[in-house]
Specification:
Blueprint: E1 3-8, E2 11-16, E3 19-24, E4 33-36, H1 39-51, H2 60-69, H3 73-89
Antiparallel strand pairs: 1-2, 2-3, 3-4
Helix pairs in contact: 1-2, 2-3
């Protein structure tokens, strides 16, 4: 683990090389941590978990990071539901104009 660069409540952010690690200090490091590439994203993850926000613009990796950091089962369930909906949505078939 690297040097701690930020703390908000029980959440700590560590610098690890060119990346950052967000850790929920109430739990063992192996249980509740996530890796991100950007310090601002690390702070945004902490903000979202603290205020139980589910950002619709987050990709699968960041949504999974919210699950890994949170300990609120209802919040985790809502995020998992969003991930499941996005996975099942799939891609639409491409349009093909068939002139018979």
């Amino acid at each position: 683990m690297g040097m701690q660069v930020y703390q908000e409540g029980t959440y700590k952010v560590y610098r690890a090389g060119h990346n950052y690690i967000v850790h929920n200090a109430q739990y063992d490091f192996k249980e509740k941590h996530s890796h991100v590439h950007n310090f601002q994203i690390a702070k945004k993850l902490i903000h979202c978990v603290n205020h139980r926000i589910i950002p619709r613009s987050f990709n699968f990796y960041l949504l999974t990071s919210l699950i890994r950091l949170s300990d609120d089962e209802v919040y985790i369930s809502k995020i998992q539901d969003l991930i499941d909906v996005r996975k099942h949505k799939g891609k639409k078939q491409s349009y093909c104009n068939r002139s018979a």
